[in-house]
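Weekly modeling sync, notes
Attendees: S.R. (lead), two postdocs, one rotation student

Agenda item 3: backlog of single-chain predictions. S.R. asked that every request posted to the team notebook include the full sequence so nobody has to chase files. The rotation student volunteered to paste the first one in as an example of the format we agreed on. Action items at the bottom.

Example entry:
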Amino acid sequence: MTTTTVTENPVEISYKLRATAKWVTKSFWERNIFEHLAAIDLASDKCYKVQPKNPNAPPVHNVWRERLWLLLHISPPLIIHALWYHLVPEDSYYHTWHPAVTYIYYFLSFFTFTMFMIKRVHYFMDLYGTFDEDQRPRDYVPDNMVARLVVSIAIYLFARTAIGFVLGDYNRNEPPSLGHTISWLFIIKIAIWLIALDFFFYCYHRACHEVPILWKIHSLHHCTKHPTPIQSILAGDIQEVIEIFAIPILATLVVPLTTHEFWIAQCILIYIEGTGHSGIRAYWPHVILYEVLEPFDMVLCIEDHDLHHRYGKNGMNYGKQTRIFDQIFSTVSKRVECEKK
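Predicted structure, as returned to the notebook:
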């Protein structure tokens, strides 16, 4: 059963009735632990109500503003780790960190970064509004998906931190340092790593939309046409294994990263995932690859993946970091509000 159909886009979009989300109406004391954790992803009430159509074009968000924000929120854990090794005498028992301690430290740092990222994304969802908000606002996480979402977030944070330690060949005697554990060209390395990751993701993602048996694996992620940041992680078991483990491992085999470079890459990646699923109504391009890909019309912006969710199984815009492979294989959809005039 549908309530509205939009046909102005190349692919027809149907808006189905919302799934039940009674948990959001519960008081603080009525919510269980999963609902409290899921509430971290609740934006302002405005984002969950239909808004009047905005006659103005989406603003162009300053990419350098986001790069500064990332620098200020990614660098502190690395600086603290490096300062510890510099200030604590080498002959002290506490000079080096046990790998288990280091893992917990970077896991908690990754969690903290994610919380700051969500707060920032919510701020701009409220400030700029969201795409398609005059037709339908953002979706709540359904009641029957709350616990699964929280567990998926935990698996994501634990696993992505661990992958960096394993593939990055972590050495407890080597603190973060530019020119050693972090290349002077780490931004270029991470940019190429993101493109490699996007290739593997594109192949897998497009197959999920075009092969019926694979769509059954992927369809849970499309239970929302208007997601919010952390709903980017909502997926079935098989999809979680592929996206959380397989794809970043394949990308790292192509472009090897050290443990500290991988941690930086994961912070950037979850930031891109969060903004990409926020629907923020702005021309908000890729924070790393913008200048490189813009001349070729291959840069990804928030509206691209927002449209992907609205299309559902019909697909289009399969890339998650770039439009390189969508352009090459003609799976780019026309932007509705961020189209160049």
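Discussion: group reviewed the output briefly. The chain has one domain: 2-328.
Action items: rotation student to repeat for the remaining queue; S.R. to check formatting next week.
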